[in-house]
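Chain A, query sequence.
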Amino acid sequence: MRRLAVLVLAALFPLQGVNAATTAYHLDPAASTVAFETDFGPDLITGSIPLEKADLNLDFDNVANCTVEVALDVTGAKASFPFAAQALKGPKVLAAKDHPRMTFESTSVKRAGEAADVTGKLTIRGVTKTVTLRAQIFRPNGSATDDLAHLTVKLTGQVNRSDFGATGWSDMVGDQVRILITARIDAAG
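Chain A, predicted structure.
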């Protein structure tokens, strides 16, 4: 990662008075990614889906006030080999033509050791399910401890694609999809 040092949520909470209220952050889409992987027999299929937008409101004094909303452009999904990319966007998996957007909207955020658990509604193929993602916050190396203007948020988790009706090629491709969202964000000025 480009010059980043971990600044986990638990380390931010003691910063009383630094950000006494919820702060809105804007996404830097060019520096942000959504990566995934799933099993393909003994191998892996890896890929990415472009982040279309992310709205994050962070309250470093009260994590319960944090909110996360993310939208992905399913039509731009890529996979580690051409057939997988076509299949991924096709009607048996993500159905990109009928459902071009995937969304996640948080419903609760709770501290989890040196991270936070972000629970919310994930919508894929028009099907909405509750999922929990693990969040960590990073800041640039060399920045002051109280400088929270530029951050990177990593959200990790997993879903079963069959829960969303994405059952195509289940005899060859695993059901569990592992997710890594890296969102570079800047405090709204």
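The longest helix spans residues 82-89. The chain has one domain: 4-187.
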